[in-house]
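User: I'm curious what two different proteins look like when written out as structure tokens. Can you demonstrate?

Assistant: Sure. I'll show them one after the other, since each token string lines up with its own sequence. Here's the first protein:
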Amino acid sequence: MTVALPAHAVATGNVTLFPKVNTIVANAEAFDALSEDLQLALRQAAGATRDWAVANNRDDPDLAEEYCAGGGHIALASDAEIEALRDATEVVYAALERDPATVEMIDRIRQLAVDAGPAVGVEACAPDDSNGPRPTAEFSGDFPDGVYRVEISVERLTSAAIDRPTALQHAGVWTMTFSGGELMVRDVNASTGKVSEGEGVYCLEDGRVVLGLLGSPPHCGDFWSGAWTLEGDQLRFTDVESGHGFDLLIETLFGGQPWTKVE
């Protein structure tokens, strides 16, 4: 999702560094233990999911246009830079191609690229900073501003039916700073120690706090929203709703446990 990309980063429009695929893998013994009807249902569900994903997948130019409209920055690598990248990866291909099965798969992938033909190009773009700093949302209300923190474990996320890879990616110490309509979200990942930060805005609508990130146009509503209660230094968000999908993850991250006020 382009709204999840940091607006201050630079994305490459004509270099894809790695693919992202989802694969269903079944243990042969466990699969054979299923009835024929269950095996058929699983195969049909997998096929239907694949077909839905192909039909509903947005193309790169469409996603790039959305990212650029939200203040993103896309650069295009030159022919010389692309050739240098290919040269740098030759040693990796040489190692992979020592295995006959792997070299066969590489050849098939290369042929798929030839059969598919050239992809529709993505245009470069840069954020327009000519008008000065980005505006923030107008804010008025009685939301309890401050710095709030919570530690979210892998176990808490997986117990909420979130898959383990996603849980590992999001578990850690989260900090949210609310200050007069301006928002800062900071995450220190539990497994890698990597720090992620994002700026945003928030406002109040019908008794709910509504959050937006500056990776998209600076308005409330594209991140998540929820009601809230404050008891002592414990801020709890309830009835959390995502503004861009991934409802279960958003609900668990931000509404799964109280946030402690630290400043």
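Here's a second, unrelated protein for contrast:
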Amino acid sequence: MLEYDVAIVGGGPVGSFVASKIAREKFNVAVFEKNKKIGLPLNCAGLITHRVFEFLSIPKNIVIQNEIKGAHIFSPSGKILTIGGNKVYGVAIDRIKFDKELMKNAKNNGAEFFRGNNVLYVQKNKGFVEIKTSEKVDIRCKLVIGADGPHSTIRDRFVFPEPREFLRGIGAEVYNINIDPDFVNIFVGKDIAPGFFAWIIPTKHDGTSARIGLCIRQDAVYSPKYYFSNFLKNKHVSEYLKNMIISRDMGGIIPLGVLKKTYDSNVMLVGDAAAQVKPTSGGGIYPGLLCAKHCANVALEALRNDDFSASSLKKYQKLWSRDFGNELNMGKKFRIIFKKLTDKQIDKYIEKFQNLKIIGIVNKYGDIDYPSKLVKPMLKKIPTLLKLAPSVIKE
């Protein structure tokens, strides 16, 4: 049986980031990734902010495909709200290259990757954690970190809380299209993407390629494929995509509702496994990396002190909650409101928001990673917005 200080289950960007930080301090780190190819299958829309690169030492020019300066938001009846256009709000990235760069950093720092290894058995035994994989790799470690996605084996095995809900997503990378490269297009409505939204994200400076897709709530009447097919036929969508060629299909599950507990003795959860995902957008890269920083730091402290007790690892929960917990909780409240809106109410909101004063506030304070920054300035300058709020706000 091989021995490591830390085993990380999941070799995506969050798992690789944690592995890199711990291995850099000369501890023995094993990373188990069930897929043979890093970054595949593709299951992410790949829209992030430049803030993400503050965590990373990877060359931006390799992974950034396009800069996004605004969004066109289409209501169910076809009304359009245009926001932004005055600065860069986000960037579309090549997720495969992004994941590979993070894995390369981790390997260069000494982490050992076991690709194509699905964890079949994980068990605590006398202060250690034993792991067995599908490829008959048997190890023993002091600490296991679950970075293994929405249906986390580590979360399930050690009986952590479940995320509140799961979104089902579907999409594709396409080319041979004609779209404004500066703007994301977002589409809402129960017939398009019940419980969430659909998107077209330009991935080239000339507007000839994009990632398109949608997510739906878990209990939606029809399958993601059904809604995606209808989405492509929508008159507001087809004008952009009528001659498109699909180069790659994509899809996946997004967990929402961050866990109230993300640690136990000898175990921590991070990223999608901990549902550290923005409820407003489904984005998990920024919050995942932010929480991963704390995960790695607490793991290093535990390794130096040789203390992997729950009371020692509890610090991780406190740190990430302090940094991003309020934002995730606020996002949850926004989501509760959004889920209760009818198509008619959404149309009303978008019509009311077609106001230069409101758009000016959105353009000034809008932040993909921290949407709650909009709340105070919006209510301060336009208190009448409270009258538009559905009954859930008053509750």
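A detail about the second structure: Confidence is low (pLDDT under 50) at residues 390-395.
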